[in-house]
Design a protein that fits this description.
Number of strands of chain B: 3
Largest sheet of chain A: 9 strands, antiparallel
Distance between the termini of chain B: 28 Å
Structural class of chain A: mainly beta
Strand order of the largest sheet of chain B: 2-1-3
Number of strands of chain A: 19
Oligomer: heterodimer
Radius of gyration of chain B: 12 Å
Distance between the termini of chain A: 34 Å
Radius of gyration of chain A: 18 Å
Chain lengths: ~260, ~80
């Protein structure tokens, strides 16, 4: 018989599992882009946005902007006719926008996130495509963020018909632009995660490949880049779905500055 | 980290094993494509001897000068 002990009363299942000897998740490094010319890249067909095309999906990552929040986070395609773009405005508002097929907008939602520079944030976009129209939510540090503006789109619309690599921390609006930021722990699911699941991830940092506490979505995990390699120029995808690694280009660097 | 601006015509002399840029295909150029830059840590690669070296803050000031030859609109 195993006694739980008074120190384990009232804590989450994930923390209890850790205390009872389950393998603890670790996070030792993030990736820093210096804002001069470096970025991250994944090849077409294997990239992050390929899992955000149709149906319901969730995108989770940690980010820390250096100096200013006015930065691209993820980019793919050719502006303005055919692209998908996740960015933060100078005022700290996160947004996801995109167009395809001769500039037809397929998604355009902005959130009142009010982020600041020099602070780590856990950001989660949840897009529910189960109804007639797509509903996209944003969570920052487990809290749902209100919407500034949103375009109604049918759930059947393919958000990701673009060709080319997904680029992180660079964009191509009018020539390539580069940004100074840290990224860490990027993951996608082909499901709309619940608020409880997102809270579990933020509070207890479980290994996303296994269910833990209120996090019950490991079977829907599509991509999982822990960014903990600390060597070489590849951030490997640990989700086990055979997708290619993300490449660190032009000196994007492993950093000990990390969210947890 | 140190940064050195070079003429595009000198790219052939760059030893990419001694700088942090991935390859000639991923270099960033100025707006008329006549210049690029490379960055390195530690000892100065011999092919960059005698060239002006910039710190991170100095190169960012050059690249982000709205009236300069490197500027790309980044404000969102």
């Amino acid at each position: 018989m195993i006694g739980l002990g008074t120190s384990n009363v009232g804590i989450s299942a994930a923390t209890l599992a850790k205390n009872l000897g389950a393998p603890a998740n670790t996070n030792s490094y993030s990736i820093l882009m210096d804002g001069t010319n470096d970025y991250l890249s994944q090849p077409d067909g294997d990239n992050l946005f390929d899992t955000l095309a149709t149906g319901s999906w969730t995108l989770s990552f940690y980010i820390k902007f250096v100096t200013t929040t006015s930065q691209t986070i993820f980019w793919k395609g050719t502006y303005p006719s055919d692209y998908l773009w996740i960015y933060c405005s100078a005022g700290g508002d996160l947004a996801i926008t995109g167009a395809t097929n001769t500039s037809t907008t397929v998604i355009n939602t902005s959130f009142n996130s009010n982020l600041n520079a020099d602070t780590w944030y856990h950001v989660v976009f949840v897009s529910d495509g189960s109804g007639t129209n797509r509903s996209t939510l944003c969570y920052v540090n487990k809290n749902a963020v209100s919407t500034n503006s949103s375009t109604t789109i049918a759930s059947s619309t393919n958000l990701e018909s673009h060709t080319g690599a997904t680029l992180l921390t660079t964009s191509n609006l009018a020539g390539l632009a580069y940004y100074n930021q840290y990224l860490d722990q990027i993951a996608t699911w082909n499901a709309a995660l619940s608020a409880a699941s997102i809270t579990e991830i933020y509070d207890n940092n479980p290994n996303l490949s296994s269910n833990s506490g209120d996090y019950t979505d490991s079977a829907r995990l599509q991509k999982y880049l822990k960014m903990d390699e600390n060597e070489g120029t590849s951030a490997n995808d640990l989700a086990g779905n055979g997708f290619a690694a993300m490449t660190l280009v032009n000196g994007a660097a492993w950093s000990t500055d990390k969210p947890w | 980290m140190k940064y050195v601006i070079i003429e595009s015509s000198d790219i052939g002399s760059v030893d990419f094993s001694q700088v942090l840029e991935t390859s000639s295909d991923t270099l960033r150029y100025n707006n008329n494509n006549t210049k690029t830059f490379v960055k390195f840590e530690g000892d100065t690669p011999s092919f960059l001897d005698g060239e002006t070296q910039y710190t991170h803050s100095e190169i960012l000031a050059i690249l982000n000068n709205e009236n300069g030859e490197w500027y790309t609109e980044t404000t969102i």
